[in-house]
Specification:
This protein is mostly helical. Helix content is 97%, strand content 0%. The chain contains 1 helix and no strands. The longest helix is centred in the middle third of the chain and has 70 residues. The chain starts with a helix and ends with a helix.
Length: 72
């Protein structure tokens, strides 16, 4: 009986370890997927902001140039 319980316990321990490894790998894969998605979206936002800043700077320069011409 002890041998049976010992083997059963070892088998359950191995199964638990395999499930634990699969769960950890699954969590790590999901974390990487979410990190990549967030990085992609942050980069999109950064590009949008950079483009708008450039447009605003150009518009400001044009407005300033227009006012300088009017006052000179």
């Amino acid at each position: 009986m002890d041998k049976y319980y010992s083997e059963s316990l070892e088998e359950m321990s191995n199964t638990i370890e395999q499930v634990r490894i699969m769960a950890r790998d699954s969590v790590n894969a999901k974390e990487k997927e979410l990190t990549d998605l967030m990085t992609k979206n942050v980069n999109k936002i950064q590009n949008f902001v950079d483009e708008n800043i450039e447009d605003m700077v150009e518009e400001r320069k044009a407005t300033l140039s227009k006012y300088e011409k009017q006052f000179n």
